[in-house]
Amino acid sequence: MNATGTPPAPHHEPTRTDRLLAALGGLVSAYVSLAVADLVASRVRPEASPVPAVGGAVVDRTPAAVKEWAIRAFGESDKTVLQLGIVLVLALLALAVGLLALRHRPLGTAVVAAFGLLGALAAVTRPDSDTALDAVPSLAGAAAGALLLYVLTGRLLTPRPGTARADRRGFLIVAASTGLAATGAAALGRAAGSPVQENAAASRAALRLPRPDSPAPAVPAGAQLDVPGISPFVTPNHDFYRVDTALVVPRVDADRWRLRLHGSGVRAERTLTLRELTARPTAERDITLCCVSNEVGGSLVGNARWLGVPLAPLLREAGVRPPSEGGPADQLVARSVDGMTIGTPVEAVMDGRDALLAFGMNGEPLPFAHGFPVRMLVPGLYGYVSACKWIESIELTTFDAYDAYWVPQGWAAQAPVKTQSRIDTPRPFARPAAGTVMVAGVAWAQRRGIHRVQVRIDDGPWQDARLAAEDSADTWRQWVHPWTATPGRHTLTVRATDGTGTTQPEHRTGTMPDGAQGWHSVDVTVEGA
After folding, report:
1. CA 78 to CA 293: how far, in whole Å?
2. 276, 292, 246: which is closest to 389 by C-alpha?
3. CB neighbour burial string for 450-478, b if at least 16 within 10 angstroms, e if fewer
4. How crowded is residue 282: how many other Cβ atoms within 10 Å of its Cβ?
5. How many beta carbons lie within 10 A of that of residue 125, not counting itself?
């Protein structure tokens, strides 16, 4: 008899089937927990969902070498792979917790609650979190998961009336019904959309780009070569590379967006709205961007037409002077809404180049993935030291006083773009037919321009390729070389010479700490006629 005078519920020794069902119960409980958290996050803030919150914390604590490997191995799918990895780990842990709950029911339930607290802690400590509400999705999900696990385990620990077996039928009914209900609720939540995201989408749709006060010069007719397989001179928005640490693309409401300008040398702190920013004199420029993680021959580079506000005049109005004019700050630290910090030399921003606070890309408002409503661009510097997306703050400081996000992880504090060239066609391991084969690609050396591109077949002499018309020194340049291909295996190699007369070095280096260099080559097999 127990304290209430009623006999205790009978228990039985779990069988192998019971243990399998317990593991399944842990998995179903974890699934319901994530579904509930996702549903709540859609009403609070999608970034507060536990998988992206924990994933973001993992990214911040991952060594730079591992991040670099992930980009090389998975390219722009690295974030998807990370999130799938987190889900897989959670699934394995859920199986173990289900088995634990079969032996220690309260302890198993407590472990689920602990995971919820971990997710909540990750959400509220993210750099982009500004409210305790970010903890709610993980806590709600944990409560749902813990309760379900407790109920399911009880079905396995308490025999059905009149039998010595666990209530497996009841277990399956509860597991299936709650799993289906969670799936339906999550689907309805996604269909309904997030108010935060809907407001951001509406503000982007309502944005009308101003006519540029300083239009970009027309692209020369000969800038685009008629060669199948070559990268287009202008990279379409949907093909433009994306490398950042945001597991969920920030969707910022342009009507609520603000840009704060402050720091050393600024006469008075200033805050700008998007309306105030777009009312300033605007400039439109073709600029090629390149990621420092781009390996020799890599695809993390693109060219677009950007519309925005020149940054240097805005800084000068605030009293900022570059170091060459006696200014106290030599570093501009741009902060993103997701907490990313990017450090840029003040001298580079104010030396006359087309540094922009851009809000337009190829004739439309910035896509969310590329920084809507505003991002920074500084030609001639790798993106990690110049191209802050979703920017919300500009602080003037010094390199001695502050290290931006990537610097403590082993990357250089300052990183001008290196001269690079790439063979776009033929592709590696292609099998073209003997005869004339067009070897073509792109080369870039922002701020210096491309003066010459040469191609070598096997160990033969270097031959000059024909260059497309140059748009500007800040854009890439196409090139082509007609090759009389003979049957057999061949190695094609390219190198470029920039506007200063400097030719790419032959020796290949890795991307760390300040960008890769070396000649790009591809192997092809020419088939006989």
Report:
1. 13
2. 246
3. bbbbbbbbeeeeeeebebbebbbbbbbbb
4. 23
5. 14
The one-letter code for the residue type at 330 is: D
Residue 451 phi/psi, 5-degree rounding, is -100, -30
Are the C-beta atoms of residues 237 and 304 closer than 8 Å to each other? yes
Return the SS3 of 371: coil
- Of 475, 519, 424, nearest to 227 by C-alpha is 424
Burial class (CB in 10 A: 0-12, 13-18, 19+), 62: middle
- The candidate with the shortest Cα–Cα distance to 374, out of 301, 460, 297, 306, is 306
CB atoms within 10 A of CB 202: 13
The DSSP symbol for 216 reads: P
Amino acid (1-letter code) at residue 347: E
Smallest Cα–Cα separation from 480: which of 222, 220, 225? 225
Contact 493, 485 (CB under 8 A): no
DSSP state of 427: P
How many Å apart are CA 408 and CA 64, to the nearest integer? 9
What is the H or E stretch that residue 44 is in?
helix 16-44
Sheet holding 391-397, edge to edge: 270-273, 258-263, 391-397, 331-336, 341-345
Tens of pLDDT, residue by residue, the chain (529 residues): 444 444 444 555 678 888 999 999 999 999 999 899 888 888 888 888 888 878 777 777 777 777 677 766 666 677 677 778 888 888 899 999 999 999 899 999 999 989 888 888 888 887 777 778 889 999 999 999 999 999 999 888 877 666 657 788 889 999 999 999 988 887 877 776 778 888 999 999 999 999 999 999 999 999 999 999 999 999 999 999 998 888 788 999 999 999 999 999 999 999 999 999 999 999 999 999 999 999 999 999 999 999 999 999 999 999 999 999 999 999 999 999 988 999 999 999 999 999 999 999 999 999 999 999 999 999 999 999 999 999 999 999 999 999 999 999 899 999 999 999 999 999 999 999 999 999 999 999 999 999 999 999 999 999 999 999 999 999 999 999 999 999 999 999 999 999 999 999 999 999 999 999 999 999 999 998 6
H or E segment to which residue 202 belongs: helix 195-206
Q: Provide CB contacts within 8 A for 407, sequence distance 6+.
A: 343, 413
